[in-house]
């Protein structure tokens, strides 16, 4: 707990909901509106890219068998479902490639929860305008980032912040679409807490359940907002209560300042990153260093041993040995040893790097076996950025590199052209969509502000070829 963690705890949840109730589209700075549209594009792209990801067909198949139609759309295949189930399927698909946005200091992926939540909610309401849609997305993403900054060691405790905090933020965003007043927003937040869950064990074990986290959060957010609209009451102290987010789930380790200070003044939305590589964010600085070593002429055959130092939480997330016998794409996505070896071997990291043939490549697995990962005790445990690498060559020479620059972050941003190219590549990878068709759909997405009914996005989403 920080020195000022308890300041302002009285009626915290109510005060937050009263503030959010007053948010209007006109409150959004132009750069926040534009970034929100780009994140919608990025998220629709990774949904398209995830169409053939392991587990997604099974999740879609199960939900389709249980549904008899509904007002919301499962984007892959455009199946009709109830809003909670559509949000679940789209959220899982958005998170499947681990290629979706992230707020590095807050350690939350926002739009894999927010876009499925708001789209499903909007489709049920009907005739939701693009401006209303963008406001709800910005509310959800902003509160998600602020919750992650306030609960700054959420992942370190074993929670999955995208899921655990995303259901809370998503419920407020969906509540804005439903035009709930402050009292009903509080009920939505409380009902979201009642569903808040999601441990990081799925990423530690490298299993398909990891991608369901975003879907479960989106499903819970939709459910919470609609039940609040219907008059179901939820806990009225979901954040500050003795069994609420901060005292119970976060075990008293939190800082309220990033949550409540300067709402609608300092936009934490500006801190979100686009991912250039489809794997756990804890690997990204290491990838950049590995690619740099390859560009300098280092070859896998030259390597006797590699030592990687990562901050504690990053180490807990991606530092385990690489077990090729598991034949797990998720294990590869969450493994610094495999990721370093793959990047050094190929001189690139892309969607094919985390396919099953690549993940069981004997040569890459052998190189990963020469890599060790340890905790960097000189860095703050929760810092996402740092990576230090020491390579011992077979000729005895030693190379040491280090960086604190995370590719795709606000300090090392992707250009808009690169974001659009990523979108086109994802749509080609998952849906076999020609570049011209992807470009046309991108134009529709980036014009969302002018849509009279955002259900058009679901209707326009390309079918698999």
Spatial separation of the terminal alpha carbons: 52 Å
Uncertain stretches of 5 or more adjacent residues: 1-5
Order of helices and strands: HHHEEHEHHHHHHHHHEHEHHHHHEEEHHH
Largest sheet: 4 strands, mixed
- What class would the helix/strand composition place it in? alpha+beta
Number of domains: 2
Q: List the total number of helices.
A: 22
Arithmetic mean of pLDDT: 96
Helix content: 40-55%
Question: What is the CATH fold-level name of the largest domain?
Answer: 2-methylcitrate dehydratase PrpD
**Which strands sit side by side, in order, in the main sheet?**
6-5-7-8
Shape: globular
Topology:
Blueprint: H1 12-21, H2 30-49, H3 56-66, E1 72-74, E2 79-81, H4 83-95, E3 102-103, H5 111-125, H6 130-150, H7 161-164, H8 166-177, H9 182-193, H10 201-205, H11 209-229, H12 245-249, H13 257-260, E4 272-273, H14 284-295, E5 303-310, H15 312-318, H16 329-333, H17 336-346, H18 356-359, H19 362-368, E6 371-375, E7 387-393, E8 398-403, H20 416-431, H21 435-446, H22 455-460
Parallel strand pairs: 5-6
Antiparallel strand pairs: 1-2, 3-4, 5-7, 7-8
Helix pairs in contact: 1-9, 2-4, 2-6, 2-20, 3-4, 4-5, 4-11, 5-6, 5-8, 5-11, 6-8, 8-9, 8-11, 9-11, 14-17, 17-19, 20-21
């Amino acid at each position: 707990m920080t020195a000022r963690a308890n300041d302002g705890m009285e009626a915290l949840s109510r005060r937050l909901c009263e503030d959010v109730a007053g948010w209007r589209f006109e409150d959004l700075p132009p750069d926040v509106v534009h970034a929100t549209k780009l994140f919608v594009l990025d998220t629709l792209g990774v949904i398209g890219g995830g169409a053939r990801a392991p587990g997604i067909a099974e999740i879609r198949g199960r939900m389709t068998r249980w549904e008899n139609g509904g007002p919301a759309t499962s984007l892959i295949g455009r199946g009709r479902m109830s809003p909670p189930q559509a949000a679940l399927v789209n959220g899982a698909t958005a998170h499947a490639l681990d290629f979706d946005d992230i707020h590095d200091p807050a350690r939350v992926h926002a739009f894999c929860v927010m876009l499925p939540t708001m789209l499903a909610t909007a489709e049920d309401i009907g005739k939701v305008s693009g401006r209303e849609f963008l406001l709800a997305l910005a509310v959800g993403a902003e509160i998600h980032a602020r919750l992650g900054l306030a609960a700054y060691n959420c992942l370190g405790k074993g929670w999955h912040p995208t899921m655990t905090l995303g259901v809370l933020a998503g419920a407020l965003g969906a509540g804005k679409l439903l035009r709930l007043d402050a009292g009903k927003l509080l009920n939505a937040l409380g009902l979201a807490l009642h569903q808040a869950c999601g441990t990081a064990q799925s990423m530690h074990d490298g299993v398909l359940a990891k991608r369901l986290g975003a879907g479960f959060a989106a499903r819970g957010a939709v459910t919470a907002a609609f039940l609040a609209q219907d008059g179901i009451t939820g806990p009225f102290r979901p954040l500050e209560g003795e069994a609420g987010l901060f005292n119970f789930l976060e075990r008293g380790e939190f800082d309220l300042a990033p949550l409540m200070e300067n709402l609608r003044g300092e936009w934490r939305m500006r801190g979100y990153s686009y991912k250039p590589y489809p794997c756990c964010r804890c690997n990204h600085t290491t990838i950049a260093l590995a690619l740099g070593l390859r560009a300098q002429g280092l070859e896998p055959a030259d390597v006797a041993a590699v030592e990687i130092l990562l901050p504690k939480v990053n180490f807990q997330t991606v530092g385990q040995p690489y077990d090729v016998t598991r034949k797990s794409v998720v294990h590869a996505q969450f493994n610094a040893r495999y990721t370093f070896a793959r990047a050094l071997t190929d001189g690139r990291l892309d969607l094919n790097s985390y396919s099953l043939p690549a993940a069981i490549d004997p040569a890459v697995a052998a190189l990963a076996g020469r890599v060790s990962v340890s905790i960097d005790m000189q860095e703050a445990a929760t810092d996402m950025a740092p990576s230090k690498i020491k390579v011992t060559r077979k000729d005895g020479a030693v190379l040491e590199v280090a960086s604190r620059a995370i590719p795709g972050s606000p300090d090392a941003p992707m250009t808009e052209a690169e974001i659009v190219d990523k979108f086109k590549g994802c749509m080609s990878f998952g849906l076999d969509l020609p570049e011209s068709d992807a470009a046309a759909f991108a134009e529709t997405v980036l014009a969302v502000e002018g849509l009279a009914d955002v259900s058009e996005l679901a209707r326009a989403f390309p079918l698999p070829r």
